[in-house]
Design brief:
The protein contains no helices and 15 strands. The protein is mainly beta. A five-stranded antiparallel β-sheet has the order 1-2-8-4-5, with no helix packed on it. Strands 12-11-14-15 form a four-stranded antiparallel β-sheet, with no helix packed on it. A hairpin with a 4-residue loop joins strand 1 and strand 2. It starts with a strand and ends with a strand.
Length: about 160
């Protein structure tokens, strides 16, 4: 798309794209095509939600809604986390998480509202004390480095 600019930053385990809308108007359309393996997923880090995607010619297209002169950040991450909510309880499983990994429940601003060490059998987090701060995602971290992120399901 003309005047939508993308920068890619990657490593073996993850890739981040920043997208900037310089069209002079809002856009609501596919703006990025990526290769996506079955064990990977795409997540909009600035909106703390799974990216809106559609298949296209053997690739995955990322659909974005971007206001004029705004940016977003899309991450391609290994699918390590699964989160299920039951009222104010969040149950998280983290497959293949490295030893001493941490979970952080975060709000839209990225502020960590609650943290817990990853438990092999699954980790339970109580959202009651943080619900006023509107938790929206749970991050899997190792030494402060993001490994995966999942949206917190609605009640």
């Amino acid at each position: 798309r003309q005047h939508v600019y993308a920068n890619r930053f990657g490593s073996r385990a993850k890739t981040l794209w920043t997208l900037y809308n310089a069209t002079g108007h809002a856009i609501d359309e596919p703006a990025l095509a990526v290769d996506l393996k079955p064990q990977e997923h795409l997540f909009d880090l600035l909106h703390s939600e799974p990216a809106t995607v559609e298949p296209a010619n053997g690739q995955t297209r990322v659909h974005v809604h971007l206001l004029r002169d705004r940016a977003t950040c899309i991450a391609r991450l290994p699918r390590l986390l699964a989160a299920a909510r039951n009222g104010d309880t969040l149950n998280v499983t983290a497959k293949a998480a490295p030893a001493k990994s941490q979970l952080a429940v975060c709000n839209l601003a990225g502020e960590a509202l609650a943290t817990a060490a990853v438990q092999r059998s699954g980790t339970t987090l109580n959202l009651e004390s943080v619900k006023a701060k509107q938790p929206c995602c749970v991050k899997l971290l190792k030494d402060g480095v993001l490994l995966d992120v999942a949206a917190i399901p609605a009640q």
